[in-house]
Amino acid sequence: MPLLHPLEPLTAAEVERAIALLRATPEFTSATRLISVMLKEPPKELVHAWPSIDLPEREAEAVLHDNARNACFLVDVNLATGAVSSPRYAPAGSQPTMSTDEQVECEQAVLASEEFRAALKKHYGIEDTSLVMVDIWSAGNYGSEEDRTRRLARPLCFLRSDPTDNGYVRPIEGIRPVVDLNEMKVIRVEEYGVWPLPPKAGNYSARRVTNQREDIRPLVITQPDGPSYTLDGHQMSWQNWNFVIGFNAREGLTLHHIRYNDGGRLRSILYRASLTEMVVPYGDPSPQQARKNAFDVGEYGMGMCANSLRLGCDCLGYISYLDAHLCDSRGRALTIPNAICIHEEDFGILWKHTDRRLPDEPEVRRSRRLVVSSISTVENYEYGFFWYFYQDGNIQFEIKLTGILSLGALHAGEKSPYGALIAPQLYAPNHQHFFNVRLDFDLDGTPNTVQRVDAEADPLGDSNPFENAFQARPTILTTEKAAQGHLKLETARTWRIINPSVKNAVGEPVGYKFMPGDNSFPLASPNAWWRKRAGFVNYHVWVTPYQADERYAAGDYPNQSSGGDGLSKWTEADRPVEDKDVVFWYTFGHTHIPRPEDYPVMPTAYIGFLLKPNGFFEMNPANDLPPSAPKKSHCCSGT
Ligand code: NI
């Protein structure tokens, strides 16, 4: 029986115990919502010393919200002794993540509202609300008194034509209820005009799409001897990689203590990797659309919105699943079965060479990657989070964006310059998706340094007679402000995380390269309301010294916050980051100008980044891969 790794997420029994202890405290009343219960991670230095030392008892940390007092507070629970800490109150007005129960209750409150029903009848002649869909949508903060003092939602509403219809293509454009989530009631209904419901159905479910194509033959992946990984609890071991798979209500999938077995030496690479925040700002200034934006991590909880992949997994081959043990907001344990998917994939050629003088001995190795993934549905949209581990030391993170666009209605013959007409009287506003990932590197130890690497041409002159010379020029990032930076295509800019104290086989510091993928700049003004709360979009790259409580790029409570929290606030101190325990934060954006082909459901868009060993290993670590077994060929039969 392997030791329970100290960073394993809470078990179902631990969640149950934590909840029971919380419910027994005087602060837990009928007005209390339990927002989240997750592992309180032990101090990092102790984890690095484990298992040579004993660790302190396991603890849970809980975020709670009191609807009666509009007050958010945190509590720690010692799972061994049962001790519960005194509540630590968040600053007044802090709004924790909206829970999935609140999504459901908010819909019920809107549908029960006399004012909402009267508006529906007046503008659309609708009296039966059984087919009306109400999506909660966060309210944000636009400087008003109520934004600071109430727990709010500004739902978007849609009308299905029947119970299995895709209602998102029939937006009730002119009516916006505003809901106080503490009182769980509609406080007013804003009316912006009347747009008829778009006339055309837009369905995608298998039961509604007729004439499905019939020319797809089976493609079967078999692994007759099982997978090449070993999963003990949440500890993964695969092709020299060792790490722990975590999960929590806010970030969803997290990875911990990523190490590589390099010839018998277990070398540390990343201590923790997670998606810490994201925001989707929309670019349409029309009054009924202008407030649309969503911080899907801090406002909705990426883990809370995770799919159970039992029925909806798109993976092939041998698959292992892990459950997520969370809570609902009424203080009940909640398990999402099969929230995390683990499998191996063939990934084409890893390396190849044919020696012209040995033509019968081509050397080729197939690449296999380990995939750890989860998928979250945030109302209309899907985000898939895929971590890939490769045999050559690469680690890749890829986000898959799919689901249904957030849509608006237009009058017949009308167009909007701020979106694309995708079906008659139906348009999709332009928007961006910004993600922030926190990478806590501990490369061969905790003191690390980050370099920005720019490829630059040499000046012209006698030493560059053919005018062809260029060099990779590293700049050591010494402080937080010096480290703030953007991608730069002109210099093929990358970043390198090094450990200056550990030298590789050629006498250089060991390192890993950070290779950005697609990215964007925010198109809204820095003074736009949503950007005040999303300082993390101001730079693509940030580096901070490790602080256990600096976890989320937009701060702990971005929901309805007045802004200025998180990375932009912490880095004001301009702390030194050279040869320190550094955290590398990457913000990446996808600018989505919609198209008719994104309707009715959007083909997956991909965005992410790659980490490559760069002087970490002595040579290609996949030089020791054996050739694949000879295969029976079915090709070239002409059928
Ligand atoms: Ni999009």
Q: How would you describe the overall organization of this protein?
A:
This protein has helices at 12-23, 44-49, 100-112, 114-124, 145-149, 296-300, 480-483, 529-532, 567-570; strands at residues 32-40, 59-66, 71-78, 88-89, 132-135, 152-153, 156-159, 175-180, 185-191, 229-232, 235-238, 241-248, 252-262, 265-281, 293-294, 319-327, 333-353, 363-378, 381-390, 395-403, 408-409, 419-423, 426-429, 431-441, 447-457, 470-476, 494-503, 509-516, 541-545, 580-592, 602-613. It is mostly beta strands and 639 residues long. The chain has three domains: 12-89, Nuclear Transport Factor 2, Chain: A, CATH 3.10.450; 100-191, Nuclear Transport Factor 2, Chain: A (Roll); 231-408 and 419-613, Beta-galactosidase, Chain A, domain 5. The strands form five sheets. It has a 19-stranded antiparallel beta sheet that branches. It is globular and about 80 Å long. The structure holds nickel (II) ion. The site of nickel (II) ion has 4 residues, from strand 24. The site of nickel (II) ion (NI) has 4 residues, from strand 24.
CATH superfamily of the largest domain: Copper amine oxidase, catalytic domain
- Main sheet? 19 strands, antiparallel
Which range does the strand content fall in? 35-45%
| Total separate domains | 3
Number of helices: 9
Which spans have pLDDT < 50 for at least 5 consecutive residues? Answer: 635-639
**Measured distance between first and last alpha carbons:** 52 Å
Described by the principal axes of the CA atoms, the overall outline is globular
* Extended strand count: 31
CATH names the topology of the largest domain as Beta-galactosidase, Chain A, domain 5
